Amino acid sequence: VEHRNGFVCANAGIDHSNVMGPWGNPEDWVLLLPEDSDASCRALREQFIQKTQKNIGVMIIDSHGRAWRMGTVGVAIGIAGVPGLVDLRGKPDLYGYRLRITMIGAADELAAAASLVMGQADEGTPVVLVRGFPYPLRESSIQELIRPKELDLFR
């Protein structure tokens, strides 16, 4: 299912794991994706910056399956103050070759690393603080990571 923010999800982006409501049968509770993950990230970022006076980025991540690959991996579904993509086209590699295609999905790589620390089952780690991110923070949107439909090879 394609979410209104543009990412395609298995199970319509509805999660049943790690969700428990205050009443009723636990089997009746599910977690939906935020309506606007970027807006949620921006609001959280503003609060963190006001309280800490530090320039930080905020991401909301989720586990996604991938076409042609087994296993789930953490991906960014909302970002604020973190680059979605880092364009390395035109930069030299170790041997001086100019990169022609390389655009790093920096937010997704960061999300995958954070997901390893957060866990997928009963670890109970809802937040990860990352230091040493190698790229400058900047305003962005999850839309940087959404492949345009005309370039989508999977639908």
Q: What features would you describe in this structure?
A:
The protein has a two-stranded antiparallel sheet. Strands 3-4 form a two-stranded antiparallel ribbon. It starts with 36 loop residues before the first helix and ends in a 37-residue tail after the last helix. By secondary structure, the chain is of the alpha+beta class. Helices cover 19% and strands 16% of the residues. Strand 1 and strand 2 form a beta hairpin. The protein is globular and about 60 Å long. The chain has one domain: CofE-like (60s Ribosomal Protein L30, Chain: A, 2-Layer Sandwich), CATH 3.30.1330.
Task: Summarize this structure as a short list of keywords or feature phrases.
2 helices, two-stranded antiparallel ribbon, alpha+beta, 155 residues, 60s Ribosomal Protein L30, Chain: A
Q: What does this entry show, briefly?
A:
Helix content is 19%, strand content 16%. With 155 residues, it is an alpha+beta fold. The model has no long low-confidence stretch (mean pLDDT 88).
Q: How many β-strands, per DSSP?
A: 4
CATH architecture: 2-Layer Sandwich
Unreliable segments (pLDDT under 50, ≥5 consecutive)? none
Average of pLDDT: 88
> Strand count, sense and closure of the main sheet?
2 strands, antiparallel
Widest sheet, order of strands: 1-2
Q: Considering the protein shown, what is the CATH homologous superfamily?
A: CofE-like
SSE string, helix = H, strand = E?
A: HEEEEH
Distance between the termini: 11 Å
Morphology: globular
Strand content: 15-25%
CATH topology: 60s Ribosomal Protein L30, Chain: A
Reading off the top of the CATH hierarchy, the class is best stated as: Alpha Beta
Radius of gyration over alpha carbons?
Answer: 17 Å
Q: Which percent range fits the helix content?
A: 10-25%
Number of domains: 1
Counted by DSSP, the helix tally is 2
**Secondary-structure content class:** alpha+beta
